[in-house]
Design brief:
By secondary structure, this protein is an alpha/beta fold. It has 15 helices and 15 strands. It folds into two domains: 200 residues, D-Maltodextrin-Binding Protein, domain 2 (3-Layer(aba) Sandwich), CATH 3.40.190; 208 residues, 3-Layer(aba) Sandwich (D-Maltodextrin-Binding Protein, domain 2). This is Alpha-glucoside ABC transporter substrate-binding protein.
């Protein structure tokens, strides 16, 4: 943040130089483009390294700001009228909201062609249809992790629900994945895009299935899960994952592909989640994914050029080359990219599931929902985890249904700004 404030101050100073001739002000060097994104630690370092090597021949430089509190940071910057030039977000609901408010700039033609359908739709804004974001990478979510040699017939589940301002999302991932594999893509898409009631039997069944899978937890265990990060406890080398965290007597973890960065050893295995969730056989090769999408917030034409380069095969290849295997970015369609030698069996397995096994990829449902409904979903998961009684569930689902209906009514005059109705597609778009 200190670096970013310095850049903002520099921009103010340079603007003053245009009005007043101040000694030492004159410079032909443009300000660095500011990129705001969700990656920190090794992920952030890899992305920043790739960013610095995206030489366009003009000498333009880039500054990356990574934060785990992405929405809060971006909202505060927009309120201060100091937005980043480019931001990378994982929420289609938020991006739709920013487009509706006129905060996003339509993408240039070369980038629009790479917009992975249906997750980057054309939106009707001021009478014109345009594409406003492009996916840069994805993470496979329908995964279960365990230690090699651990029987999988009767798993004891690791659960860590804490995550700063967005605590609860590991629980929403559970419910989304269960609904997808039990009910299939059609009910999932309708629910994700607010066209299916939260009181629908398929939705209720997903919640009760989650409670059944986690049944038998003690009060101490529940409190531990509510207050422990999804990364597990920290050791000398950083987060060590829930499977390796002291005090967690568990054998299996339901978590996205990104968590592999805390499991660096060869004693961890990963497998599709479908068989653990009580789903139907026809949904076995359907997977939930999360995506990170780049959007342009400034009028600087170089910001458009940057997004075009980041989303290109060359940009992907450079990003992948700069990253350690544990944080190497994943893509839903690797056409145009040379094959990569996977560093371990875990990466090989995930890449194979994403690009060979997967028949259908469905975008993370809560990330499609309007922000107010998504946030309420996060809170409801935390409350349900603490008290999974049927009466409590009925009350929580009615609250979520009330919010869904209200958001739907408020959007009556702006339906063209809604997220796409189709959020599932084959790996090639």
């Amino acid at each position: 943040m200190r670096v970013l404030r310095g850049l903002r101050a520099l921009r103010v100073l340079m603007a003053g130089c245009l009005l007043v001739l101040v000694p030492g002000c004159a410079s032909d060097t443009p300000d660095p483009l500011v990129v705001l994104g969700p990656w920190t630690g090794k992920e952030g370092e890899a992305f920043e390294a790739a960013l610095q090597r995206l030489d366009d021949g003009t000498g333009r430089t880039y500054t990356y700001e990574g934060t785990r509190s992405l929405r809060e940071t971006l909202v505060s910057q927009l309120e201060a009228d100091t937005p980043p030039d480019v931001a990378v977000l994982n929420s289609i609901g938020e991006l739709t909201e920013y487009a509706r408010r006129g905060k996003l700039k339509p993408l240039a033609a070369p980038t629009r062609e790479r917009a992975f359908s249906p997750w980057a739709p054309e939106l009707l804004v001021d009478g014109s249809r345009s594409t406003y974001w492009v996916p840069l990478k994805v993470d496979l979510k329908s995964l279960v992790w365990s230690k090699k040699g651990t029987p999988s017939d009767d798993p004891t589940w690791c659960v860590g629900l804490a995550s700063q301002a967005t605590s609860g999302w590991p629980g929403t991932d559970w419910i989304e994945d269960i609904l997808l594999h039990q009910a299939g893509t059609d009910p999932y898409e309708k629910w994700a895009t607010s066209r299916l009631s939260w009181r629908d039997p398929d939705v209720v069944r997903a919640w009760t299935t989650w409670a059944r899978l986690l049944d038998g937890r003690t009060e101490d265990s529940v409190e531990q899960s509510l207050t422990t990060s999804y990364e597990g406890t920290s050791g000398p080398a950083g987060p060590r994952g829930l499977l390796n965290s002291p005090g967690f007597e568990c054998t299996h973890e339901h978590q996205s592909a990104f968590i592999r960065y805390v499991y660096a050893g060869d004693d961890i295995r990963v497998e599709p989640s479908a068989r653990f969730l009580g789903g139907r056989a026809e949904n076995r090769d359907t997977f939930e994914v999360a995506g990170d999408m780049a959007a342009v917030f400034s009028d600087d034409p170089d910001a458009q050029e940057l997004v075009e380069r980041l989303s290109s095969p060359a940009g992907r290849e450079r990003w992948r080359a700069e990253a350690d295997p544990a944080v190497r970015p994943l893509f839903p369609d690797t056409k145009g990219l040379p094959p990569t030698e996977s560093a371990n069996t875990v990466e090989q397995e995930i890449d194979g599931l994403l690009n060979s096994t997967a028949r259908t990829l469905c975008f993370d449902a809560s990330d499609v929902m309007p922000p107010e409904l998504r946030d309420a979903f996060h809170r409801a998961v935390l409350e349900f985890f603490r008290d999974p009684a049927k009466k409590r569930l009925d009350s929580l689902l009615q609250q979520l249904e009330t919010i869904r209906v209200q958001v739907d009514e408020d959007a009556d005059d702006a339906r063209s700004f809604r997220p796409p109705e189709d959020v599932c597609a084959g790996p090639g778009g």
